[in-house]
Amino acid sequence: MSTLDTAIDRSSPTFHANRGALLDSLAELDAALDTARAGGGEKYVTRHHKRGKLLPRERIELLVDQDSPFLELSPVAAYGTDFPVGASVVTGIGVVEGVECLVVANDPTVRGGAVNPWSLAKTRRAGEIALANRLPMVNLVESAGADLPSQAEIFIPGGRVFRDLTRLSAEKIPTVSVVFGNATAGGAYVPGMSDYTIMIRDRSQVYLAGPPLVKMATGEDADDESLGGAAMHATRSGLADFLATDERDGIRLARQCVRRLNWRKRGPAPRNPMPRPPKYDPEELLGIASADLRVPFDPREVLARVLDGSEFDEFKPAYGTALVTGWGELHGYPVGVLANARGVLFSEEAQKATQFIQLANATDTPLIFLQNTTGYMVGTSYEQRGIIKHGALMINAVSNSTVPHLTVNLGASYGAGNYGMCGRAYEPRFLFTWPNARSAVMGPAQLAGVLSIVARQAAAARGREFDEDSDAAMRMMVEQQIESQSGALFLSGRLYDDGVIDPRDTRTVLGLCLSAIHSGPVQGADGFGIFRL
After folding, report:
1. 3-state secondary structure (DSSP) of residue 528
2. Mind listing the pLDDT tens digit for each residue in 345-399?
3. Among residues 66, 151, 57, which one has the least CA distance to residue 104?
4. What angle do CA 282, 398, 264 make, to 5 degrees?
5. Which of 201, 324, 375, 433 could make an SS bond with 339 (beta carbons 3.0 to 4.6 A apart)?
6. Residue 125 parent element (H or E)
7. What are the phi and psi torsion angles at 118 (to 5°)?
8. How many whole angstroms separate alpha carbon 48 and alpha carbon 64?
9. Which of 416, 428, 410 has its CA nearest to residue 371?
10. Cβ neighbours of residue 364 closer than 8 Å, sequence gap 6 or more
């Protein structure tokens, strides 16, 4: 393979300005992550511990293999909403008895672990990841059920969580539940629809309706244990497959269940089990991404700090140069890369991407999309040369490609460029964002400018004088709104990605995702839609 060189000057003012801007964005990210990890706050965490109970991340730490990584997903879900950051649930991928599993853990210190619209969306996304990548799912259950004030947004779509559990089972993807406390009403169906269910003596309570509701509905006086206690479910109803003595014993039994799955990956093993690290320091990634998103940067500098040995065989290097395409390996796994070198995609880039995606599918090679695009080129000459149909070629290829896709937004992801570079709507297996990144229909200044032009034309059509002061105020307001709504944390809070990551962790995060992806088969498409030539 060809080895990438670097032109980065760590002493340059541009490098230091870029690094400073990214460190500021990372500080905002760290503050949001600290809020999520704090759960319901010191008062509720202390009370939970005094009851002899573990926090969700403590349970996860005991569940996963010692010293193995845990890739937390959607950690700042609900950021910028009326609900707590983190959405009262922790999800991620960890190794249990040598098996990569999708883990979902309710956080009972946040409103009793009640399910709100964002925790529902986060849990559903975890189920999608488990199904797409053939990952066994372990649920660490302790939830008060639905957040009743927001039930209108939860009740109807919430049924999909149970549907997804049964679909995992139908695909022979095992599901395991450990119930640490209450699992009430709809929450009772999580252990009820899991392949393996573990309950904890004198701790677990699983019932469709608690004693007060039973009294209201039927007039019956019932106590927690006889109605839904762990011992009852282990000896009478049969809902509990295992009866644990305490939380640690319940986690031990969950690990035992996973150990006995006889689980085998269906995807190919890494080509090189001992890959060489990149030649260049990942710390330098902080100074590569431009502080000003209007200024492009060379994605080869990123690849030189992400790919094994900084080796990259570029495809069509002299054609469609605003898009870099080529082959490399990441943690031993062969990958194809599509990375924006300049913001705009022209017809040549779209055609180049289409061919490259077809080649990757022909060789069953996963694709990595590194976004930094303002969209497809506009203008009379570009329209006449066929930018619409060429962009459609690329989007067709992305849409119908069946090899796994991984997407990282390094800077800008605007307009239809977001679609062509496999944005969320195109269902990449995983999508992550650098903290400096932005995504919207177009940049704030462009969007405000378009609205201004439309308003000016409307005033002229009516024969009215155009109010320049009102226009300036409108443009400022719109730019501020789009700037706030296109930021990485805002979008991640709404689950438009699977997490905002430190650029220095990009190689590790992609490596963990590639390993998880290969739990299932990796197979290219047999055909695509009609290409307009």
Report:
1. coil
2. 999 999 999 999 999 999 999 999 999 998 898 899 999 999 999 999 999 999 9
3. 57
4. 70
5. 324
6. helix 117-133
7. -80, -35
8. 22
9. 410
10. 403, 522, 523, 524
Phi, psi of 296 (to 5 degrees): -70, 160
* 100, containing H or E segment: strand 99-106
* Residue 396 and residue 528 in contact, taking contact as beta carbons nearer than 8 Å: yes
Closest CA to 77 of 502, 372, 498, 521: 498
Q: What is the separation of C-alpha 234 from the centre of its chain, rounded to a whole number of angstroms?
A: 37
Burial of 349 (0-12, 13-18, 19+ CB in 10 A): buried
417: CB partners within 8 A, 6+ apart: 340, 345, 371, 373, 374, 375, 376
CA atoms of 411 and 436, how far apart (whole Å): 6
Residues whose CB is less than 8 angstroms from the CB of residue 508 and which lie 6 or more positions away in sequence, other chains included: 69
Q: How many CA atoms lie within 13 A of 217 on its CB side?
A: 8
**Parallel, antiparallel, or unpaired for β 323-330 and 313-315?**
antiparallel
The most confident of the ranges 87-101, 446-460, 463-477 is 87-101
Closest CA to 450 of 442, 460, 439, 440: 442
Handedness of CA 273, 304, 67, 143 (dihedral sign): negative
Please give the helix or strand (H or E) that residue 314 lies within, else none.
Answer: strand 313-315
Cβ atoms 231, 237 nearer than 8 A? no
Tokens for 113?
């672990």
Q: For the chain, what is the mean pLDDT?
A: 93
For residue 196, which amino acid is it?
A: Y
Length of the chain: 533
Give burial (CB, 10 Å; 0-12/13-18/19+) of 442: middle
Cβ neighbors of 452 (< 8 A, separation 6 or more) are: 471, 474, 475
Cα–Cα distance measured from residue 477 to residue 463, given in angstroms and rounded to the nearest whole number: 26
Amino acid at 32: A
> Does residue 448 have a pLDDT over 80?
no
Helix (H, G, I), strand (E, B) or coil at 138: strand
